[in-house]
């Protein structure tokens, strides 16, 4: 779908005025088209969600072009990118790159990690999950209902890309086609899904940088000294500081 650029709330941005939002088409949509070109070339910053230096992306007009820009910045294939979140590296389905991209948004790209094959017994008509897609061919799990069939299979997680069902490759399917396929599976029978989970980061370095610090400001300085090339956004630093605080309280 066309992606609307939003400016700051206190003033309408000139870049926002010329952009038109279309019908929703999943998590990412396909087009970032504008009714007229912005007055200046917009530049966004991006990182790989599992950890990387900061890259610059600019001049894109579609989701495909954005993924290609991110892939070029980090020397990976565009097909490695599952989806993007805004302003957080977490697998947060409320922060998916969707209908709007703010002028100050920081883009985190979640790339393919571990592949896994799971067998699920369909004991109920409803599996208790919500499917979405990235707009360019990858469907993934957006929500899992507590107490549902899928919730009982702990190796299945929110954010997992569904690559195949009972051996049938579904790459390129829209989310509603995948949901229909799952709904049509027979009750009280076993089925198999091949999933790919997003690549996850190892946070030991961050914990070591923050374990003897007393506030987020000291932690931010330590991160700059240790991992300065990464240029972490403030929201991410506060999130990690919270995790470190929890770990301290548990005596880890």
Tell me the structural class: alpha+beta
Major β-sheet profile: 7 strands, mixed
Head-to-tail CA distance between termini: 45 Å
- Helix/strand order: EHEEHEEEEEEEHEHHH
Can you give keywords for this protein?
7-stranded mixed sheet, two-stranded parallel sheet, alpha+beta, 252 residues, 11 strands
What's the arrangement of secondary structure elements?
Layout: E1 4-6, H1 14-17, E2 43-48, E3 55-58, H2 63-74, E4 81-86, E5 100-102, E6 106-121, E7 129-133, E8 139-144, E9 161-165, E10 168-169, H3 175-184, E11 190-198, H4 204-210, H5 216-227, H6 234-249
Parallel strand pairs: 1-5, 2-6
Antiparallel strand pairs: 2-3, 4-6, 6-11, 7-8, 9-10, 9-11
Helix pairs in contact: 4-5
Question: What does this molecule look like?
Answer:
Helices cover 24% and strands 26% of the residues. The chain has helices at 14-17, 63-74, 175-184, 204-210, 216-227, 234-249, and strands at 4-6, 43-48, 55-58, 81-86, 100-102, 106-121, 129-133, 139-144, 161-165, 168-169, 190-198.
């Amino acid at each position: 779908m066309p992606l609307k650029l939003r400016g700051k709330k206190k003033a309408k941005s000139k870049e926002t005025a010329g952009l038109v939002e279309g019908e929703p088409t999943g998590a990412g949509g396909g087009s970032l088209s504008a009714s007229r070109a912005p007055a200046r070339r917009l530049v966004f910053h991006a990182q790989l969600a599992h950890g990387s230096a900061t890259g610059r992306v600019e001049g894109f007009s579609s989701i495909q072009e954005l993924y290609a820009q991110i892939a070029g910045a980090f020397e990976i294939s565009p097909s490695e990118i599952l989806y993007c979140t805004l302003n957080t590296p977490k697998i947060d389905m409320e922060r998916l790159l969707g209908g709007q991209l703010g002028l100050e948004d920081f883009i985190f790209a979640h790339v393919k990690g571990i592949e896994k094959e799971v067998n699920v017994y369909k004991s109920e008509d409803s599996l208790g999950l919500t499917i979405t897609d990235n707009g360019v061919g990858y469907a993934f799990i957006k929500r899992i209902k507590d107490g549902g069939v899928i919730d009982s299979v702990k190796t299945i997680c929110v954010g997992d890309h569904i690559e195949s069902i009972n051996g049938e490759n579904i790459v390129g399917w829209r989310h509603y086609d995948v949901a229909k396929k799952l709904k049509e599976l027979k009750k009280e029978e076993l089925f198999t899904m091949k999933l790919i989970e997003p690549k996850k980061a190892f946070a030991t370095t961050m914990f070591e940088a923050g374990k003897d610090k007393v506030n987020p400001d000291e932690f931010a300085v330590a991160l700059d000294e240790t991992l300065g090339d990464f240029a972490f956004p403030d929201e991410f630093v506060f999130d990690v500081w919270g995790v470190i605080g929890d770990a301290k309280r548990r005596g880890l």
